[in-house]
Amino acid sequence: MRMFLYDARLYFWLISMQIRAQWQYKFNLFLDIVTYFGVTALEIISLLLFFIPFPTLLGWKVGEVALLGSIMSISFGLAELVGAGIDNFGDMVRRGEFDRMLLRPIGAFTQVIGSDFRLRRLGRITQGGAGIVVALWFLPNLHWTLTKVLVLSIGILSGTVIFVAILLLGATICFWTIETTELTNMLTYGAREMLSYPLTIYNLVLQRIFLFVFPVAFGTFVPACYILGRPLPFNMPGEVAFLAPVIALIFALIASQIWRLGMRRYQSTGS
Amino acid sequence: MFRFYCEVARTAFRRQAIYRWANLAGLATNIFFSAIFSYIIIGLFHVRPSVAGFTLVDTLRYTWLVQALLMIIIPFGWTDLMLTIRTGEVVTDLSKPCNFYWYWFSREVGRNGYYILFRALPIYLAGMLFFKLGAPAIGPNWLGFGLSVLLGTMLGIAYRFLYNIVAFWIVEARSMITLAQTSALFFTGSYIPIPFLPPWARSIVEWLPFNGLMNLPSQILLGKISGGTFWLEVARQVGWVMVLTCGCLLLTRMATRRVVSQGG
Amino acid sequence: MAIIIEAQDVKKSFRVAKRRPGLLGGLRSIINPEVRTVHAVNDLNIEIQRGELVALVGPNGAGKSTTIKMLTGILVPSGGYVRVAGLKPVEQRRELAAHIGVVFGQRTQLWWDLPLKDSLHLLRHLYRVPEERYTANLKHLSEMLELDEFIETPVRQLSLGQRMRGDLAAALLHDPELLYLDEPTIGLDVVAKARIREFLLSVNAKRGTTILLTTHDMDDVELLCPRMLIIDHGRKLYDGSVTAIRERFGGERILIAVLETALQNQSALQEELPAGVSLLSSQGPRLELSFGQRSLPAHELVAWLGARYPLHDVTFQEPEIEDVIRRIYEEGLLLKEGAGVKKH
Q: Fewest CB within 10 angstroms: A55, B142, B145, C150, which?
């Protein structure tokens, strides 16, 4: 426990260095955030435009899809913000920076995740926030309760944890080969894109994958269904939305075990 | 001189072929995203059989065509020219005994050749396989498509040259480039098929240079544009190609003068 | 003296997948890779005493960095026994890390956009250095390396020499017993190099820090390290002093003589030369003779030459250590462990 607290404190030291470093280029940072906001806003705008010719997407109305997409934007944006260091892991190995981390008396994971904190991702998070406002404007009759707000918050945080864990799995692959980094991008960005829409539009195999293998749906789709009072696939009760943190933690634990395995391999091959 | 440009294109083709794994991963990504878009479109079409003359199959074909053309016309993340400006390598390119713009144009033609064979075709074939698209068209539509896609490619090369060459004047051009690419993608149907836009928006978009990038060639191939409209659209496309190319040549001259006056 | 690094019969072999040509071949290589074993390090024995200054020399790909990685616990050896500072490097990697400091000449560990001070401050936490020790060490290092003039400057604005000084301070903040330096003087100018070397010597003398450095700069070896290890193809070629190896393999010295008048008859001189002496070149009055130290003492050669020609000037050229190493490679003069060389 004391170890954990020390690592947590170190993590904050590390990211505060990152934030101060990025703050040196205030203007560029601001420009990046605005650009990123604009780029991601175009995605939401296109989504809204689809609903001019089409009234619903398999029964989902425009506001509902916008809410789903916005939840995804926030949790994915948070994951990109926090997990940027993990995302860079391939480069870190290639440049020998990871070896340097192994030469310090601190856990490698803390150093990897502390090596970056990409402030420009605030653009996507802001867009997600704005998206929720738009969604609520389209959904004037949605009844909010305290539990719904709770489900929304734990959903977003669980989604973030799950995405960071997926990034970690992608990074772990670097221990075996660094040629497939682009394929892991497909998993993260692909999952984000897919889960920005109702899960039920995909075939059952994909639905199962995103519920039970890479449980991204628990961070977005499941809480959105709970809030909107929609049924879940596979006859799951809506209350599974409360399980999101548990599922996220289990998934993160599995990912961290695989990461350990990768570390051991790295130490025996050095590749 | 023409032989020199051909050689440049050939080298660019071969250089692209070196990055085999990156190309394969890129191909997989393009196919994956096209599949996601297809699912969304299938879901939307549940409630209506057609929109603006587009049936489900038309829309799927349109989507896969646009995704297939993507790397040829708007290669995402293309900052090659900007990087040479940043590293200063550009000075040697500027002093080559050829026109700077046509030099880059030839390079991109070579790369596009690679992308036609190893991106566009496999992507569309994958769409045919997974979503039973069938061939996008028969007979004469291919002729019009050939002409329009050629113009679209020229437009695309000029456009990417333009948003890269600003790096001569703007130090941190990266976010501007992202914005330039995304808005082009949006206005040429990569995010939402242009025919799905409300009429007033469509009438604006049709006058923008982006229309000729991917939307127009795709619609022509699907037979949605024919007869007099076809010639009008192609004329608009030619107009934009000329405007953008002139812009490239002008900026090249300004950039050259800037480099020369700074003493390289 | 106590042993700080001990490696016995250390081996490391990698299994390397060979890529087949072509795209299909590439796919086949994923499914059914053609594996080949590469022996990066073979039966290496190293013993370093506390307080030593040792250079690890060898061409690129010789196994230097693999060796260092095994000594620091980043890499698990395929076989053999390793102890560093009494610890098992792999099992006790993080514990060991507190005992070693590392500087890579090519890559800084400092935070690029922030002042040097901030990096040092963060490293204090990364190495868990107690406040008082940190303050004392920083004060001491600042004086020795004259950090004060640039400690508030962002690292990206530092000159290479300043950056290296900063990196050295960063590596020594936690009082490591063992300092590992990879190309510490690469890219520096003469003045900066001299300064770094002076600092390393004083750290070694005052703090008793053991220093192991890899370098391609033979001046580093000659000026810093009484002992040198030459490694190639994962084997130890040589372990001993720089002077000893020069005597053994660099026996050939060069005498440059300038005569009062230009040499008239070159072939006559060549025929007359004593055994073990050869004429490298002659240009007007200038002669270059190479001779083995054992075959003829230098003063005798001068006397011999002086008896035949009036001499204007005589100078000797010492063999460069690079030449010596090149000769070892070229002639395949593989040294048996310690053969003919006195060990420590």
A: A55
Residue A102 is nearest to which of C15, C74, C114, comparing CB atoms?
A: C74
Nearest-CA distance from B241 to chain A in Å?
A: 26
Look up the pTM and report it.
Answer: 0.85
CA–CA dist B175, B263 (Å, integer): 28
Residues of A in contact with C125 (CB under 8 A): 9-10, 13
Q: How far apart are CA B174 and CA B249, in angstroms?
A: 22
| Residue that the structure tokens 């070892």 belong to | C328
Q: At which residue do the structure tokens 């890219």 appear?
A: C187
- Measured CA angle at A81 (ends A79, A84), to 5 deg: 90
Q: Alpha-carbon distance A42 to A49, whole Å?
A: 10
The tokens describing A124, both together, are: 């996507």
Residue B21 sits at the chain C interface (C-beta within 8 Å):
yes
A164-206 confidence digits (pLDDT tens) = 999 999 899 888 876 666 777 788 888 999 999 999 999 899 9
Cβ contacts (< 8 Å) between B24 and chain C: which residues? 23
CB C112 within 8 A of CB C47: no
CB–CB of A115/A86 below 8 Å? no
User: Which band of pLDDT confidence, cut at 50, 70 and 90, is reported for residue C232?
Assistant: confident
Distance from CA of C74 to the nearest CA of A (A): 6
Residue C250 pLDDT > 80: no
Chain C residues bordering chain B (beta-carbon distance below 8 Å): 23, 26
Q: Closest residue of C to B19, CA-based?
A: C23
Contact indicator for A54, A192 with CB cutoff of 8 Å: no
Q: What is the pLDDT of residue C267?
A: 82
Q: Does B14 touch chain C (CB under 8 A)?
A: no
Q: Is the pLDDT of residue C336 over 50?
A: no
Nearest to C311 by CA among C294, C299, C325, C319: C299
Given a cut of 70, whether residue A152 has pLDDT beyond it is: yes
Contact partners, residue C24, CB within 8 Å, separation at least 6: none
Indicate if ipTM > 0.90.
no
Q: Is the pLDDT of residue A269 over 80?
A: no
Which chains have 3+ CB pairs within 8 A of B?
Answer: A, C
Structure token digits, residue C56 = 């690890």
Per-residue pLDDT of chain B in tens (264 residues, 90 and over written 9):
889 999 999 999 998 888 877 888 889 989 999 999 999 999 999 988 999 899 999 999 999 999 999 999 999 888 899 989 888 888 888 888 889 999 999 999 999 999 999 999 999 999 999 998 888 777 888 999 999 999 999 999 999 999 999 888 887 778 889 999 999 999 999 999 999 999 999 999 999 999 999 999 999 999 898 888 999 999 999 999 999 999 999 999 998 888 776 654
Asked if residues B67 and B32 have their Cβ atoms less than 8 Å apart, the reply is no
Partner residues linked to C227 by β-bridges:
C54, C241
* A-chain residue closest to C74, CA distance: A267
Q: Is A179's Cβ below 8 Å from some Cβ in B?
A: yes
Closest by alpha carbon to A259, among A159, A130, A168, A152?
A168
Distance from CA of A55 to the nearest CA of C (A): 45
- Classify A78 in phi/psi space as left (phi over 0), alpha (psi -120 to 50) or beta: alpha
- Residue C111 at interface with chain A, using a CB cutoff of 8 Å: yes
